[in-house]
Design brief:
Layout (H helix, E strand, L loop, with lengths): L1 E5 L6 E2 L1 H14 L7 H6 L5 H8 L5 H21 L3 E2 L3 H10 L3 E6 L4 H10 L8 E3 L11 H10 L6 E5 L2 H10 L2 E5 L13 E2 L5 H13 L1
Parallel strand pairs: 1-4, 1-6, 4-5, 6-7, 7-8
Antiparallel strand pairs: 2-3
Length: about 220
């Protein structure tokens, strides 16, 4: 049995516009200058408290907590008005992989439980993922806790599992948990930060996985 674990923002879902607008709303609520776009996107993938600490290190713990609350409220409102779109090919590839008897799917995301449940429901993915790990229950990436939980939940050994993500944090988390990582170039970190296995389109993922699994049997 093979386990394929997916990040969400920047990997499955193009949430860039919502992220930047929610950041703008959060920092505006505290009358604090918003960091530039590049800094905001570079922090995507971390848990929100870690993101706010990184983006505004001069603020107090209470202010960081207030930024997290304001961001969540703004993001929730934006998502309700216009859901984030999937990247081309994401749904089709997930459906094909889930249909395979030798593959199970998982999620490891910096999103909250509320956020990921909304995405799963809105895209009709109920039952598609055997394990869903979120920031509510784990340390921030790149800590391997979420992937350890995915492995425990599915009973799959690390050498039979792959992490698919768009950030350096995803690749570092995979390495820390003993998994191979596949980076996607359409997300929020540049290709150079994603390691040796990077795809440019969802149509390439199944081939990349096949190569990994074939090499493992040699």
């Amino acid at each position: 049995m093979q386990l394929v674990v997916f990040d969400v923002d920047g990997t499955l879902v193009d949430s860039q516009a919502h992220i930047l607008l929610a950041m703008e709303g959060a920092f505006s609520a505290l009358a604090h200058p918003m960091p530039d776009r590049a800094a905001c996107l570079a922090a995507v993938g971390l848990s929100l408290p870690e993101v706010m600490l990184r983006l505004a290190p001069d603020l107090s713990t209470a202010d960081h907590a207030a930024l997290v609350v304001a961001y969540k409220d703004r993001f929730h409102a934006l998502r309700g008005a216009a859901p984030s779109q999937l990247y081309p090919g994401a749904s089709e590839v997930l459906t094909r992989l889930a249909a395979r008897p030798d593959v199970v799917l998982g999620i490891a995301t910096g999103k909250s439980r509320r956020g990921i449940e909304h995405i799963i429901t809105s895209h009709g993915w109920d039952g598609l993922f055997q394990t869903v790990q979120v920031a509510d229950n784990h340390p921030s990436k790149p800590h391997p806790s979420m992937l350890h939980a995915c492995l425990d939940a599915t009973g799959v050994a690390p050498e039979h599992a792959v992490m698919v993500g768009d950030t350096e944090f995803d690749m570092q988390m995979a390495q820390a948990a003993g998994l191979l990582g596949v980076g996607v170039s359409w997300g929020y970190h540049p290709r150079a930060r994603l390691g040796p296995r990077v795809i440019d389109d969802f149509t390439e993922l199944e081939g990349a996985l096949r190569m990994i699994w074939d090499e493992a049997t040699v």
